[in-house]
Each structure stands twice: as structure tokens, then as C-alpha cells.
Amino acid sequence: MTFDTSRRTLVQIVDRSPQVKPKPTNLLQGTLDLLILKALATGALHGLGVSRRIEQITRGTFVVKPGSLFPALHRMEEAGWLESFWGDSENNRRAKFYALTKAGKNQLEVESEQWETIALAMTNALKAT
Amino acid sequence: MKLWSRTRSALRNLLWKNRAESELESELRAYVDLVADEKIANGTSRAEARRTALAEFGGMEQVKQTVRDQRAGTRFDIIARDIRYALRQLLRNPGFTVTVVATLALSIGANTAIFSIVNALAIKNLPYPHPERMGTVFERVTGPDPNDERRWIDGTEWEQLRDNVPSLISAITGGVSGGVNLEAGPHVQYTLGGRVSAHYFDVLGLHPALGRSFNEEEDLPGGPKAVVLSYNLWKTIFSADRNLIGQTIHLKREPYSVIGVLPQGAITPLNADLYTALQPSRSGEGTGTNYEVIVRLRDGANWQQADGELKRAWAARAKQIESRDPGTKVEYYLMPFQKGVTSVLRPRAYALMLASGFILLIACANLAGLTLVRMVRRTPEVATRLALGASRWQVQRQLWIENLLLAGIGGLAGVAVGFAALRALLSLLPKDYLPVDSVPLDLPVLAFTFVLSTLTSILFGMLPTLTVRKVDLRSSIASRALAGGAHVGLRQALIAGEVALTVVLLAGAGLLVRSLIHLETLPPGFNANGVMTAKASLDDARYRDPAAFRHLIENSVAAMQQIPGVKSAAVGLTLPFERALNGGVMLHDGPQSGKWVGADMVYATPGYFETLQMPLIAGRTFTAADGPNTQAVAVINLSFAHKFFPGMNPVGLTVDKGLLVVGVVSDVQLSSGMNRVAPLQSEETLYFPAAQMNAQSLSVHVWFQPSWIVRTAAPVDGLTELMQRALAGIDPALPFSGFYRMSDLEAETLATQRIQVALLGTMAGLALLLSAIGIFALVANMVAQRTREIGIRMALGSTIRQAMIQIAAVGLRASVVGLVTGLALSAAALRVMRSLLYGVGVYDATTIAVVVAMLLLIITAATMLPTLRIASIDPATTLRDE
User: Do the Cβ atoms of A46 and B31 come within 8 Å?
Assistant: First the structure.
């Protein structure tokens, strides 16, 4: 496995590695998944919509590039968390929309809880003297 | 849910690849357009917006590939590509592929087939419920004349066993099935009858499908005559008549009531058409050890209990034998039935299993050598691929797939060969040779040989790749000659091992062949050519009277002599090659006078010796004048004369008070019953005139069916019908069992030996072939690897001869080491075979010489053939090639 950290964000790097199996405990991979799930929690969005929504809810901390976004969307769809359909965008462009399935909603809950546990633990760990 | 969803996606991706592709294309295009739209909305120009949107996207094709790699089913694509590549690789090297597949197929297939038969010989699965609770009685004699074998018992022992061993359900039989004449409508049929005691079917765990089995009253001497039919007989003769139970049928010209029919497919050790009650007693046949025992442990009892009871029940008998033969100790014990009935076959089975194991080892050594070398030779290719950017995992995956594919093809071929070989081997076996109905391919053995052979080929195929990390790219690509040099030693060791095992197998097969030749070339003591034989059952109410018996045989023989082309005809109780009646006489003359000695007993009509062309050594043979009211006479054979009348002229001496010896004939080969040391041997024999048999001695017809024999000068058309007609002229209700040529009887007697030779011979041939392949491959590989070196040497003045010898020496050295090791190994291993050999010792100079000569020939051929390629090496081309 080669890490090429020069150009890509952390999220992208992880997604470049097909050998790493998607596991809910995988912190880095889980981050992108969780963000996508959260982004779609309020309703169906197309690819750019997901990207913009993540930017918005993380207040610009994460900018998800297409190279990470689309593989993740396709993987999550195949995992049964998302479903897709073709629809028209706000400015009448035909685009592929993604929405949470029932399994996706469950996954969001599970991952949110896990993340909170980890985040709390990490925060405490870093604050410890 | 997740699995289903992924499977569905995988299918969709694989089946509608183009659609998935175009959807992906539109989706990504839409994204770019949407980004461009945003930019336009923010005031950028249309062209600029589109350009920056595309640039920010960061490579359409890369994104697509990342998505594709994410897709379910991508792996299948990659694997399919690898498999195609592997197949191409295998096809490019047809010699290697065919050799490995053939080796796998033979080692898996042939071994499994042979093992399946050996397993059947050892009757792994008796066709009875709870076979582990069935047993038989063994007698272990220690002392001057040690012995440990299945015990046949007499009437007294039977009563003690039946009444004093409560832990067992015990049963006895008359041992073998005998011919029984069954009247069915207008015809009389020759059937096989088994005589069994009351609880026989209980011991076997068989319940009649109709009616019942024998009760104790029917098993008492003089009890009601009853018969149990086999399903097949009931169906074919009595058209499956359900009302037959309770009715009377005629057997042996006596009425028997049918009490039961066995279930379809029921098998008994006697394998008879019908069963009558044995009615054992202490008198008659019960005075001798003529009953065969079979027992079943009662519920709740165990073997220790039963053993103890048996020892107490027969304590008096053991004491009796011990006091008769001082220094002897006799012990009776129970043996599990399966082990008991196969005790004779076991050494044969072990020898074959050992051979089978050897073949497997040889095959594995070969596979190891072949695959090892192939992979070592591919090191440069691997290095090139690594240099071109393939990951180690990709290279290894490719090699794994290639090896698995090869092993898989070989394994499948092995299964196919296994089925074919088993069928071929079974067709070689004589009918009823195996104690079971059918022999399935032994699945556990198949699995074992399959796994072992394929694992070997995969393991050795992968060995070099597992060390692929160490490959130094530059040197591997540059110097092809270096590759694999270090493995020659290992390969030589493998070859030496193969050759050693081959020597053992060849020597073993050689010894069996020598035994068979010995048995087949034993002087038979008579002329088997041109003699036709047929048996008839005289265990018949009408022929218990000696006068009726005399009338039948004298007139039927006379009638057969009238057949045109017949030189002579006769009747005898048993024939050469058959087992004879074991009897005993009190010697009256000679050094052992007054002693009771065992001898085979055969009654014969006057033409018996002439028809068989047994040479008369002294005195005369029987004549028509030897009748019931004249002097009782006997003809003895040479063995009898030498043993009991050494240095005397036996003619005129008497045995058994009043029995006058009138002649001496040569020995004939018999299938022995008394002192079984070989499948064919001669024994002390007494011949009596058939006309002098009394009513008591005619009871022997319960066990033996006499044979009518006819000698013709040339083949006679329709001889068998003419013989049947001649007999029918005297008694129309007496059927013959069937007709056999005397020469076929010998073949039947030696069937076991012939099969052993066939099986072990096949295996030895297989071993030889595998070894030759191994040696050939080793040397051929050396030639290929060192072509450049040889070229240089030749350019520097070496001759072709020198180069050939130098390369061949590698194979020769390994083979000769193997040959010597093999000879040493044979000395130890072949002792297993001692009990299978006749007329030849374990250390037989001829066999060893032939084996060594044969191997040297094969070794030389296998090493020299590939070196012939050296002659075609052109130094100039070779040097320029680099």
C-alpha cells in the first residue's frame, strides 16, 4: 500500500485502498460514510448536493472531492444503505439522486453512537494530563 | 440484506456492464454540469466554468476506475482474467501440463480404485445390523505346533456353546452351501442349499420377509423338515407366491414345508438359494469338527463376559487336547466376525495397501520435482512482471490460480480414472470373488489421495513464489542460467527416493509373478486337456441306498462312454484342483502301524484314473470286478506311499484292517483342506472303488457333489447336451449343476494369485513409469538450463559425448543411489509378503537380477534420451542468443 499524501485529503486516501474492507470500526472510512449518511438524513440529494451539504454541516472543514465521493456512494448503495434514482435538479439537469434506505437509517444511528463514544474517548484522552 | 444487496449488484455489474458504465458516465457528467452551473450562476463565463469544473473534478477516468474498483463483482473479473492467463500458460507448456495432470490422475485414480477393492476384500462393512456385535470362535494353540485360527467345532462343543454361554446367541452351519435338487413343477433344479442351526438368522439379524425362521424343534435330529427360501428363488421358481408359506415342496426327493422367505437382497455368509435346518448332533457329522460357528452378543452382554463363559464351557476340551499333546496350551476366544472371516485375506490386503502407499509417495515426489522446477524456471518472468509494476500479491495470486487450476484439472481427471480403473479391475475379478455385492469407489480414500496429491503439487509449485521477496530483479532478469541451480540436489533426492520405492514394488511384484509361475507349472499329475466335468447332487433320498447309487453311476458312465468321440468316462467324488474330503484311516502295515492318520478320501469308478490320465506307478487301478461283495480295495497316491510305507512296496499291504492296497498312482495338485500351506499342493490320498461305498459313507454327499468326467480326443459338438441326455436316460430327474472344462478349474483355483499379480504388477508398472518420468524430467531440465554453459564448453573444445555424460551423470547418480537404497529397503519390506509366496523365497536372486536389469534399462533410457538434445546445440547460436 502506498500513501501519497501530497495532493489528496485524508478521506480520499483511505478510499484509494481497495484491500481495506469496509468495517464500521474503521475510523477514517467511517467518517466519510457517516458524513454521507448524515447529509442524506434530511432527504434525497444528488452527488454535488451531498458534497455541498457535507461542506455546509461541517462548516467547510471537509470538502469531499468526486474521487472520494462517487466510489463511496456506489459502495454504500451496493451495501444497501442508499438507494438511487434519476431525477431533475433544481436547475432542471438530469442527475442521479441518492436517498437513505431503512438499513441506511439504522446504519446512521449505529455509526453516530459509535462516533460519539469514540469522540468522547478521544477528547478525554487528549485532555488528560 | 447486505449480502443479498451486494450479490444483486455483483450480478447486475457483471451482466449489464455496459449499462452500468453509461450510467456512471452520465452521473459524473451531470456532476460536472452542476458544478459548472454553480460557477455560471456566480458570474463565470460558460466556457471558463466548464473548464474549471472539469479541472477540479480531477480526472474523469481515474474517478471512474476508482468507482469500478469499488463495485461488487470486480474480483470475478480479475480472477477470470487470471484464469484465462493461467490456461494460456498451461497450454504453452503442454509437456509439463500433461505430465502433471497424468501423474495426478494416475496417483489419485489408480490408488483409489485399488484401495477400494482392498477395502472390500477386508469387508469394511458387513451387510448386517450391528456387525460389531457379531463374532466367531478362534483357537490359539501354543507349544510345539503353534496355531491360531478359526475353530470349527463338533457336536459336543456345539451343545456346550449353545447351552453354557448365555451371553451369546450362537449358531452353526454346515460350512459351505451344497448342491440340492429342487423339484419345481415338471423340472428338477440344481440349487445351492445352506444348512443352518435354529438361531442362524437371529445371529445375522435377518428377519424373514414372509413366515418365520427355524424353531428349535425343527433343528433337532429327526425333526420336521422345513425350508427357508431366498427371495430370488421364491421369485424365479415360485413366481413370488405369497401362499407358499406352509405348503410342501420337494427337496432331495423328500417333502419339506416352506416356513419362510428371506427379504430381498438379504445376504448370508453361505449365500445359498435355500436353507434347511442343520439338525446338529453328537453323532454322524457331529463326531468331527464339521460345524462353523457364528455368534452375536446378546443385548447387555459384553465380549469379556462371553469370552469367560466360552473358556469355562470348553475347558474340558482344551484339557483333552493339552493332555494328548504334552507341552501344548489351548485357548479359545471370540474374534469379531469381520476380523475373523478376513484373517486369511489380511496379509494380502496389507501388501497391496503398502504398495498403494508407495505409489502415492512416488507420485508426490514426482509432482514436487516437476512443479518445483517449473516455478524456478519462471523466476525471470516473475521478476519481469515485478519490474513492470505488478504488486507481489498480483504475481502470487496469478501463480496460485495457475497451480490450483492444474491441481484441479489433475484431480478431476483422477476421479474419472478412479471410476474407470475400479470398473476395469472389477471386471478382472472372477464372479463371487469378493465377499460383497458391489464395490463403490471409497470416498474417504478418494478425498485423502486427492488432497495429498493436489496439496503436494500446489505446495511445491508455490514454494519458490513464497520466497519471491528475495528475488533480485536485475540479476534474475539478466542471468537465466542461474535460476534453479540450488534445487538440483533436492530433485536428485526426490528421484532417488522414487527409484528406491519402485525397486521395492518391482521386487514384490516379481516375487508374486514367480509364485504364480511356480503354481502354474507344478506338475499337475494328470492331463487336464480335453476333459469335461459336471456335478450332480446325490444328497437325495433315492441315492442313500448303495445299490441305487451303484446303478446310477455304472449305467450313466456306460451311457456316456457310448457318446461318439468320447474316449473314456468316469465318476469321482472330487477332482484334482478341488478340495478333497479329509478323512482318516488306521494304518495296519508299515512303520506307523496302529496309528490313526489323516488322508484325503476319494471314491472313483474304474475309468477315473484313465480318464484323467493319472500315471499308475505300481499295481493296478480299479476294475468292474471290484464290487460290493468282493475284497475291499484301495489305490493310494505317491505321497501316501512315501509317508506311511517308506521304502516298501505298498501293493498288497493293508490299511484300516482288511482294506487292501492294490495300486499306487501319481500325486495330483489339490486345493487343500487339511494342511493348507499353498493354494495348490498334493496330499496323502486314498482312492476307493465307488461300488464299495456303504450307506454310511454315502452321507458324504451332504458336503460333496460327485463329478462326472468325460475325456474326448477332439472337441465334440454338443458334448454337454449329450452328457446330460446320457444321465437323463438313467434318471430323468437328476440335473447337472453346470459343465466345466478341467483346465478352467485350475484357473479358478489360482484366481486369487492371478489377481494379486495383476494388481501388484499394475502398481509396479505405474511406479516404473512415474520414476522414468521423474528422471527424464530432471535430466531434460538440466539440459534446458545449461544449454548456454554447454555451448560455451563446446566452443572451448568439449565434445558432445563429454557434455552428454556430464549432464546424464546427474540423473544416473540419483537413480543408482535409489536403486541401491531400494534393494536394502526390499530386504526389510518384502518380509510382509512371506505368507503370499510359494516355491520362491523372499530373497530370490532371479527376481532381484531381473528387477535390477529392468531398472537399469529404464534409468539409462530416461537419462540418455533427453541428453540427445545436446547433439543439436550449436555453440554459435547459443552464445549469440544471450
Answer: yes
